[in-house]
Input
Amino acid sequence: MLFASNPAPAPAPISVDDANGLASLVTSTDDPAAKDCHNYRAVVQNIDVRFLGPERTAAVGPVSAAYHRFGPLELLAPITGLQRPLVLVIGIACTMSDWTPRLLRALAANREVIIFDNAGIGFSSIAPNGVPAAADYFRFQADTVAGLISAIGLTQPDILGWSLGAKVALNVAVYHGDAVRKVISAAGSAGGAQSSTAVIDAVNGDLSVRLGRAGALLERPDNIRAVCQWLIEKAVMPDDEVTVAEIRAQVKAEVEYHKGDGIVPLLSGVTNPTLLVTGSEDITNQPSNQVPVVAGIRGSVLVTFPGCGHLALFQEVDKFVGLVNNFTAAAGAFTPQPDSYYTCSSA
Output
């Protein structure tokens, strides 16, 4: 795959005040830009999330992992034509309650889906003597994911990570490739000093204190619809809290992940079919972060959502889920629709 030698510079991250302004649109009644948000709230507020089933826990080494497991296998039986289970790994400053019900229900239409809190976040605790050093964080999270897969009796499920979770998914492919079948990295990176550190700069400091789960709010100021839809949809999910201390631990891990070469030298050993997804306007994990991953993993496929930012999978649920379904169902080489098919609205 060919890449432009001089990619266009990424847009500047929004400021703390701008981000607070976007978040306030959810409750605003005066700002004309909030109209779609309020209309959307009326549709979403009655979504039934009982499909998630009960929260469960599994012991994985020093981690007590909190998770939900749901899908057609628990709703209707027998069903034919099901795909393999799909394990979802959430992003920075987020818990499993930050997935949205619309995305989860679409993904679970023909497969089991497993969502969980990353170790040390929300309801997934780490024993004091098991807390990893920041430099070992992503390897530790990958070990925990592989352990959870084994603990709950899955056999080579597919894995989909978003943002920090996409980095974890790539680490699973590097260190535990035999634990999963296919890998989907949405808005992730292989780290190293050559990759963008916008996520560190934006989530660190005052932003993490004032906005909490700030990573997903790092959109262009004009991409209001995506931000509002994400905030409104996730509000109906069962909530589990994230502390500033937990976020800062993730930020420290991100700092270490972006030193040296990251996992780039190890990518050539990945044999899992791998799909990379990016938004052309992602200012958190910029599209340029995908270049070394595509170059490193033989046969990997990159799909760009033109006009989308960090929230592409939440903004364009139908297109994203269709892409995931086609990739996981492909028996051989996977050829996606042209990037132009995945164009996002940025209103």
In short: DSSP finds 13 helices and nine strands in the chain.
